[in-house]
Amino acid sequence: MEKTDWFSTWFDSPYYHILYASRDDREAEQFIRVLQSHLAIPAGALVLDAACGKGRHARTLQQLGLQVDAFDLSPSNIEEANKVANDQLHFFVHDIREPLPKQVRYDVVFNFFTSFGYFDDPVDNARAFQTFAGGLKSKGTLVMDFLNPTYILANLVPEETLHRGGIDFHIKRWEEKGFLYKSITFEDQGQAYSFQEKVDLISKEDFLRYAEAAGLHFVNLVGDYTLAKFDAQTSPRMIFFWGKP
């Protein structure tokens, strides 16, 4: 994969982690526990956290008694995550579009916190679903947590400045040709920086098509981290559950 992809540089930047350092680890942990209560994954089951960042979700999964593999495209993220690796928690660098080292092995594959939709070509989205499906055992489950495009666009903050780690991050957001863009500009130690995020505003219907093409069957869709019923207008998230026959 070419290093020019925006996500391969921004996600590997220390400034990404400075900007998003305030993300709520408690909310992430509560979400995992709600999921485990819902799914009742047996102790010792092997699960995968796909696009795991620095591993905050993976750590909680392991603490709940599961064996966890977790990967991310960013080598620096995996270097940091490996500080807490153990016999039940394994991290590795991997591209979500490529087949997994362990095929047909996982009881559950998780994709958390809109760690998807970064590709210009829809074929890459389809390839990622093939990756997920290829890693699942028969009767395994795929859980995907993605933003709800309708809600996001209705509540979009076009411009703001966030002060993080002694840096003023100037942020602009807009929609263009089916993608949500975020420009991030700032200065640090006299040096000007500029990054851009870009996420495909994938519809519910397109997600269902990607999953069906990968041989997965739809189980459920909920709208937030309490697993409340999905409402197309008011739910902040689309959290899908698919099964593998």
How is this structure best described in words?
The chain has 245 residues and is of the alpha/beta class. It has a domain of 159 residues: Rossmann fold (3-Layer(aba) Sandwich), CATH 3.40.50. It has eight helices and eleven strands. A seven-stranded mixed β-sheet has the order 3-2-1-4-5-11-10, with helices on both faces. Strands 6-7-8-9 form a four-stranded antiparallel β-sheet. Strand 2, helix 5 and strand 3 form a beta-alpha-beta unit. Helix 3 packs across helix 4. The longest helix is centred in the first third of the chain and has 15 residues. The protein starts with 5 loop residues before the first helix and ends with a strand.
Describe the structure in brief:
By secondary structure, the protein is α/β, with parallel strands linked by helices.
The share of residues in extended strands comes to 25-35%
Average pLDDT figure: 92
Q: CATH homologous superfamily of the domain at 23-146 and 209-243, by name?
A: Vaccinia Virus protein VP39
Number of helices: 8
Number of strands: 11
Distance from first to last alpha carbon: 31 Å
Contiguous low-pLDDT stretches (5 residues minimum) are none
CATH architecture of the domain at 23-146 and 209-243: 3-Layer(aba) Sandwich
Order of helices and strands: HHHEHEHEEHEHEEEEHEE
Task: Output the structural class.
Answer: alpha/beta
Residues in helices, as a percent range: 25-40%
CATH topology of the domain at 23-146 and 209-243: Rossmann fold
Shape: globular
Largest sheet: 7 strands, mixed
Q: Tell me the name of the CATH class of the domain at 23-146 and 209-243.
A: Alpha Beta
